[in-house]
Design brief:
The protein has 236 residues and is α+β, with helices and mostly antiparallel strands. The chain is 22% helix and 33% strand.
């Protein structure tokens, strides 16, 4: 079935609009779409989206994470195997993280990573048919915000919610940071790590994030204001 941007699509549908755009300029085909010959086919059920100039993808609900190259993820170290740490990402197989994939790591200066530690990493190799490989440094060898996450609170959510809160148009994070100072790491594998001044604020932040999944922008702002008032003791 022929579909257009904004339509609800099903696997097997095709979009001539994307194919025609590709004849004139470069087109980026994202998740949920597959190019075959000169046509673009849908592989996931969802809503066909576009970001200017020519980026297309299907916004679909996904439970299990499928590793993709270049995504930031949050994992839990589950095993040490020689020079490799095995990391659980919530996907069909564990990921490999070399001890040399940390800033300043050498054979003599190994990072202090223990079983059970939470790590914020980037996927170097990601495919549904290959074992994922992770690194905790950027292309310049610097850790930036990657590495072991200490203390804080880790919880799971839908991958759709991750995409939503990372969207620049979503007011959630801006509304929250105006109320409390906190640290947050969002993994594209459906995990969020937050750290606030107190356990009470941490729980409030977690509830606000989970509650924002099906709310509009105005409802998100109102919810954040209400939570802030409750924590401040202005609402019984």
């Amino acid at each position: 079935m022929k579909v257009s941007v904004g339509d609800v699509v099903m696997p097997g549908d095709y979009c001539e609009e994307i194919a025609k755009a590709g004849e004139k300029s470069k087109v980026i085909v994202g998740p949920g779409l597959h190019k075959e010959s000169n046509q673009i086919y849908v592989t996931k059920a969802g809503v066909l989206k576009k970001k200017n100039p020519n980026t297309y993808w299907v916004d679909y609900y996904q439970k299990r994470y499928i590793p993709a190259r270049g995504e930031n993820v949050i994992g839990i170290v589950i095993q040490k195997a020689g020079d490799i740490y095995r990391v659980d990402l919530g996907s069909s197989m564990s990921a490999a993280l070399s001890y040399l994939s940390f800033e300043g790591a050498t054979k003599k200066n190994r990072p202090n990573v223990q079983i059970g530690d939470v790590v914020y990493a980037k996927t170097l190799v990601g495919s549904k048919d290959m074992e994922p490989e992770l690194v905790c440094v950027d292309s310049y060898g610097k850790k930036g915000r990657l590495g072991v996450l200490t203390d804080g609170f880790l919880f799971k959510c839908s991958i759709n919610l991750i995409r939503k809160i990372l969207n620049p148009q979503c007011p959630l994070l801006d509304s929250l940071k105006n109320e409390w100072p906190f640290e947050l790491a969002a993994g594209m594998n459906g995990r969020i790590w937050i750290k606030a001044k107190s356990m009470r604020e941490t729980i409030a932040l977690g509830n606000a994030i989970l509650g924002a999944e099906y709310l509009s922008a105005e409802e998100i702002k109102a919810m954040c204001a209400n939570i802030a008032a409750i924590l401040a003791g202005h609402v019984a």
